[in-house]
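Lab meeting, item 3. Inverse folding demo.
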């Protein structure tokens, strides 16, 4: 199946799972439920849940039982976007093609909507009614994987260093730390959660981990490039915001052309990590290529 059709099909499945995880806007208190749903259903490619599903499928697993877990990755990702957009952080007005959560609901409700989504992810991850297919010990490994990747050892740590580096002439290892933690950690965890669900052998788990790391890096380089070359109506946020905020990015170090070359090189490494997998891993291979060629 062509990657665009694959993504569309999986996005529909993920959106349905998310719909069942997050109560309707009119639930009490409606302000926070509306804000959570506003940001969650504003669009979004659902890359992280789809990576988890594709990793499990690469191992031959049936993935219906993975959906609450895959959905939890998107809940955490959306929380991070809401908080990242706040005036105290990146202070952005546009996200996923819409005014940011705090612009519509105010800062206090946006903060609480982010908190609500983060905690709802762990509710979903520990709900025995939804997770009958996953043995408790494996579920604990997944919860640890996701919480470590989202917290100070992952995304939160990356966000802190990113903020503290604004306007500074950071070195390349610092940029690498920001990229691997702020964006890379949750992407890597998404693939590893799919691998855990699919009962990967130690060898395959290692290969999928390498794939996740390379895809995470390629994704971030592509994001840095899109921040310069993208169109606002396609990327759904303001163009040129990294430069405006004095953020050092991949193109800042290497220029656009070299960054493009490196993104492809890293994506090729992701594909190479899957050399011992059969055709069931083709969506993962195609995703690695798609991530560097994407326009949003
Ligand atoms: C607030 C703890 C905390 C962390 C925020 C994710 C993040 C960390 C910041 C977002 C800033 C940013 C633009 C990062 C670049 C990579 C990235 C995460 C892009 C957005 O992800 P996509 O492209 O977005 O998957 P969609 O909308 O498709 O889900």
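The presenter then showed the designed sequence:
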């Amino acid at each position: 199946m062509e990657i665009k059709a694959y993504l569309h099909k999986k996005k529909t499945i993920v959106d349905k799972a998310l719909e069942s995880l997050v109560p309707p806007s009119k639930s009490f208190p409606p302000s926070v439920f509306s804000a959570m749903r506003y940001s969650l259903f504003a669009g979004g490619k659902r890359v992280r849940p789809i990576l988890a599903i594709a990793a499990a499928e690469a191992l031959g697993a049936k993935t219906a039982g993975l959906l609450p877990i895959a959905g939890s990755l998107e809940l955490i990702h959306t929380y991070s976007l809401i908080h990242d957009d706040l005036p105290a952080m990146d202070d952005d007005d546009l996200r996923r093609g819409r005014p940011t959560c705090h612009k519509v609901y105010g800062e206090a409700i946006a903060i609480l909507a982010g908190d609500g989504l983060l905690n709802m992810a762990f509710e979903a991850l520990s709900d025995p009614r939804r997770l009958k297919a996953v043995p408790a010990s494996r579920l604990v490994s997944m919860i640890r994987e996701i919480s470590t990747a989202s917290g100070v050892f992952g995304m939160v740590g990356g966000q802190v260093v990113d903020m503290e580096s604004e306007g500074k002439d950071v070195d390349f290892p610092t940029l690498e730390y920001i990229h691997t933690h702020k964006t890379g950690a949750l992407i890597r965890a998404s693939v590893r959660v799919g691998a855990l669900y699919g009962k990967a052998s130690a060898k395959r788990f290692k290969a999928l981990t390498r794939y996740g790391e390379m895809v995470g890096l390629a994704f971030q380089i592509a994001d840095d490039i899109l921040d310069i070359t993208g169109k606002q109506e396609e990327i759904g946020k303001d163009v040129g915001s990294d430069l405006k905020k004095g953020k050092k990015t991949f193109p800042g170090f290497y220029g656009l052309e070299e960054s493009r070359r490196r993104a492809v090189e890293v994506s090729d490494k992701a594909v190479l990590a899957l050399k011992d997998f059969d055709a069931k891993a083709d969506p993962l291979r195609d995703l690695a290529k798609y991530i560097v060629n994407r326009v949003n």
